Input
Amino acid sequence: MDYISTRGQAPALPFDEVLLTGLARDGGLYLPGTWPRFSPEEIRGFARLSYPALAERVLAPFVEGVIPGPRFAEILEVAYAGFGHAAVAPLRQLDRRLWLQELFHGPTLAFKDYALQVVGRLFDEVLAARSRDHKITIVGATSGDTGSAAIEACRDRERIEVFILHPKGRVSEVQRRQMTTVASANVHNLAIEGSFDDCQDLVKAMFNDPAFREETALAGVNSINCARILGQIVYYFAAAAALGAAERRLSFAVPTGNFGNVYAGYAARRMGLPIERLIVASNVNDILTRFFESGAMVTDEVRATCSPSMDIQISSNFERLLYDLLGQDGRAVAETMTRFRASGRFELDRAAWQAALALFSGYRLDDAGTLAAIEGIHRTTGELLDPHSAIGVAAAEAQLDALEGPVVALATAHPAKFPDAVERATGVRPQLPPRLADLYEREERLQVLPNDLAAVQEAVRRTRDLRGAA
Ligand SMILES: *Cc1c(COP(=O)(O)O)cnc(C)c1O
Output
């Protein structure tokens, strides 16, 4: 399996290179050259598999030739062994056709663990095949949950230094502490005086600086890294197989920021899953919802909400969908993205926009609506949801009548990651699982930096040098 760039100018790469590369050299994002396809019979059979065994079946084509099958199965088994629920991604029925898929049973209590617990181990695996002194530098931007999931996946790994940029003061206290209280020497938290989009731009700028990239052997953990997307495809198959989807179509409502999770749903559909609709659920940072309403992608100011992991105005992974919407024409994608970068907007022609609408629909909910949704869902079903997950359920409820099959709302975080919002809505303060119970007592470590590329690069270099000398 070779991977190609959405902008068509970077060389195609095998899986191990794509894993370590992150952003393509032409500024694009990597995608599998072809999507493997599963038949309805195969999908029916998936219902009998454990989650790690299902992951092996779904993901094997993507690592073929790079990681031997039995070894890959072992990696997946270990990656999911630490999850707090035997089913790994269990389904709960909320109403006759409405289901919740709980994706918060990993070590950091958000769905990002589902891919990153695998990706961290894959880094080790492909580095082990290289020379002994080959060390990589991971830089990642986080709106809250990627950071802790990446840190948990990469901590104490000998050949990896991890630098996580978060927008200072704009992540929840639990989210911040989950990152800053990790005592591993290879973990470095950078609090940037800016927004998540600024952090993401800094990371992209580091990748787009060839000298820096070379010098530090830069690798990425954001969903610009294709392996992240691949790891997220599995739970769509798990939900569908459990609900008998080989026979009937189903829909997903996905709380969305960077379009990574919902793109994985799109990928699952390309792989044969009969998905009726993908509902893209956002807070007031609704660039995607506005796009589905108008066909125009137009950035706006980022506004802080009670669902901070979706406080994003540039949904990077949309570029992967754009590649298909523009007829897999890399040059057209590059032009469109250049225009977007320069002017903050682009517009699709009617045919491409309609093609997107045939599968996707948008939904938005403001903070008041989100708190009302948390309260309503708690009162009617007993389920305590975090603000992101509540937006997903509200989106599913709003569009249920227009759909034929079951709708699965993805619960992307544990309510205890956002205790203040949940308590405000319901009067109930959700408790952290026992393994995180002393989070508020642990010591924090972070560096505050301005929103400035040179300053961040200097901090990365200096820390690497210090660590190299140690
Ligand atoms: C990251 C995150 C999202 C957004 O996911 P994307 O893949 O960026 O669209 C939604 N909810 C939670 C809790 C998250 O951590």
